[in-house]
Every structure is written in structure tokens, then in C-alpha cells.
Specification:
This protein is 31% helix and 30% strand. The chain contains 8 helices and 18 strands. The protein binds adenosine monophosphate and magnesium ion.
């Protein structure tokens, strides 16, 4: 779904740790989807179910990728209006919810901007002012209408669900595992995670990668999965583009039409599903800590920002973000 445009880092933003005792009862099954790695951590006795979760991830990619021609989303973008399958329709609804909640910092109609900057090609470039203005004029989530099972785009609009689809795939994978009788597991795509229950009799222990030293971590945190805890990160250190030697984030600020600046990463913990958490992480990345922390607090989202304060890296978090133990 999200193509790596420049440097690809094989390490996840968030790493999952396990003690020897826990490793005996849980198994981690590795996959590849949406151009990145995925995994299902599941009780050893239920190992056979992991492939069913993976099938859901593949389904989302086959419906919603804009990198593959012929997907439902690509066809919608060409046609401008189309009746959609339930998963794609649901994902669009969640994307519009995130757009509303972030005041448009997350905007699934960002496609023309991504295109104007060439972030959807092998040749990213600074757009000329005319095409930038044209693209900016097309970005407006309010112009997307849902009528029954159909989505109707405004003239020239293109949906890009790259900021929400990984989370949505995690939601479908988790729903499948629950349906098959598995109550404790963790599913992950490219560093975004959704966990349920506990890992044996322990909480899930999650490591947060150090943006200044990608091979290290800044610490770990304990997460109780309960009935679904999503941990999603938007960061510019895993995916970025370089134009004339200058580094740009792959996340656009729909308000000024430029790649978002200032924030290195946002890690968010939410209990309203992984799709919404994924979308909100992208939106909060655009908003930055000053705007984003009060919004996260008001929505009951736990969030931690790593951002540039001048030339130095700083962190800001909501009061309820779990303690990061070094
Ligand atoms: P994520 O890695 O989840 O933060 O998603 C980044 C992807 O979301 C990008 O590669 C684009 O496909 C898309 N995107 C970029 N900017 C935005 C935005 N402001 N709102 C919604 N989607 C975006
Ligand atoms: Mg996202």
C-alpha cells in the first residue's frame, strides 16, 4: 500500500519483545504485505490460524492499494463514483471520521497532492506553483459523499487510503482471529500493531525505536491488550523522500500543500480500532504536538510525539501515555 520512496529501514518503529518463558507458549509468524513486513504473534497451539489473519491483510491490499491498477480504490479514482464492497466502504467511512476529528489534518483526498509532488512515482520533485495550486484545490474530504454503498468523489478528486489501510487490515485480521476463537494475540504491519488479551500471563512488552539511532530503542512499555489496543506510529524516519538532497516526509500537510515538517514521529495508543488509530497518527503527525496533544487528550487517545525543538529532539506526551522504561 505505502511504497517506500527512499530509504527503507527493515527495523520496525516498534519492536515486540518476549521473555524465554513467554516464547514457549507464543509463536511469531512472519509475512510480507503492502510492501512491508507483517506478523502474527499467536498461542503456539493456534498457529494454524495465523494464515487466516494474513489472508485478511492481503484482501485489504487487493482492494485498497493505489499502487496496483485494477484494485477497487484505483477503479473508484478513475471512475469518480462507484459502488464499493463493504470493507472498502467501511475504511472510507473511518477515514472521513478521522478527517472530521483532525479538522482535515488527516485527509484521504490528499491523492492529488501526493501526485503533484511525485511521491507516487520514482521521481519525487518540487511541483511547479501552478500544479501545486491545482492539486491543493482538489483536496477536501468534505467533497466526498457516501450514498448507500456508493462513494462519490468531487471532480478530479482521488482517494489515498495509505494512511489508514494498514490499521484497517489489522482490524480485519483481528476480527478473523476472534471469530476463530483466539482471544490473545498481536498482529502487526510495518510497525503498526493491534493486540488483544495478554501474552500468557504478562502484558505485551513493546519497544519504541530510537529515531536518532534506528538500531536502538529509547525504551519499552507494557500494554494490556484487553479487547483491543492499537499502537500506531507515523514517522518520517522510516519512509521519506529526497529531492535535491533535501529530506521530505511522505505525509502531506493538506492545509499548505507541502510535506509536513517538524515532527519525527507520533506513537499513539487507542482503543477504537487500529484503522482509526492509524489515521489519527497520520493526522497528529501533521498537527504537531502543540495542536495534537490537546486534541488527543480530548479524544481519550494516548499519544507521544518526538519532534524537533530547534536543532534538538524533544518528546511531548499526553499525561496517560504509558511509562517508557529505559
Ligand atoms: P502513515 O504511514 O500511516 O502515516 O501514512 C502515510 C501515507 O498516508 C502516505 O504515504 C500517503 O499515502 C497518505 N497521506 C499522506 N499525507 C496524508 C494526510 N495528510 N492525510 C491522509 N493521508 C495522508
Ligand atoms: Mg497512519
Amino acid at each position: 500500500m505505502d511504497r517506500v520512496l527512499s530509504a527503507r529501514c527493515s527495523l520496525f518503529v516498534i519492536l515486540v519483545f518476549s521473555s524465554c518463558a513467554q516464547r514457549e507458549s507464543f509463536v511469531s509468524v512472519d509475512y510480507t504485505v503492502m510492501g512491508t513486513s507483517a506478523r502474527v504473534i499467536i498461542p503456539r497451539g493456534k498457529r494454524v490460524l495465523a494464515d487466516s489473519a494474513y489472508a485478511q491483510m492481503l484482501l485489504v491490499d487487493s482492494l485498497m492499494s493505489i499502487w496496483k491498477s485494477g484494485t477497487e480504490l484505483s477503479r473508484l479514482n478513475s471512475a469518480g463514483a462507484m459502488r464499493l464492497s463493504q470493507p472498502t466502504l467501511r475504511c472510507v467511512e473511518i477515514a472521513l471520521t478521522a478527517a472530521r476529528e483532525t479538522g482535515g489534518a488527516f485527509d484521504p483526498t490528499v491523492g492529488p497532492l501526493v501526485h503533484a509532488w511525485g511521491f507516487d512515482s520514482d521521481d519525487p520533485h518540487t511541483p511547479d506553483p501552478e500544479s501545486l495550486e491545482l492539486a491543493k484545490g482538489l483536496v477536501s474530504w468534505q467533497n466526498v459523499r457516501i450514498e448507500g454503498d456508493s462513494v462519490i468523489l468531487g471532480p478530479g478528486q482521488r482517494l489515498d487510503l495509505g494512511g489508514v489501510a494498514k490499521g484497517f487490515a489489522l482490524d480485519l485480521a483481528a476480527a478473523k482471529l476472534l471469530e476463530l476463537g483466539c482471544e490473545s494475540f498481536l498482529v502487526e504491519i510495518g510497525g503498526d500493531m493491534l493486540c488483544y488479551g495478554q501474552k500468557g500471563n504478562q502484558p505485551w512488552i513493546i519497544g519504541i525505536r530510537d529515531p536518532a539511532n534506528p538500531s536502538g530503542i529509547i525504551g519499552t512499555m507494557s500494554i494490556r491488550g484487553g479487547k483491543g489496543a492499537a499502537i500506531c506510529t507515523s514517522g518520517d524516519y522510516e519512509r521519506f523522500v529526497e529531492i535535491d538532497g533535501k529530506r521530505y516526509s511522505h505525509i502531506m500537510d493538506p492545509r499548505n500543500g507541502e510535506p509536513a515538517r517538524g515532527v519525527v514521529s507520533v506513537t499513539l495508543i487507542g482503543d477504537r480500532g487500529a484503522a482509526l488509530a492509524d489515521a489519527m497518527a497520520t493526522g497528529l503527525f501533521v498537527m504537531g504536538p502543540e495542536e495534537g496533544i490537546p486534541l488527543a487528550g480530548s479524544l481519550g487517545i494516548k499519544a507521544m510525539f518526538i519532534y524537533y525543538d530547534g536543532d534538538t529532539l524533544a518528546t511531548a506526551r499526553t499525561w496517560d501515555f504509558p511509562e517508557v522504561t529505559r
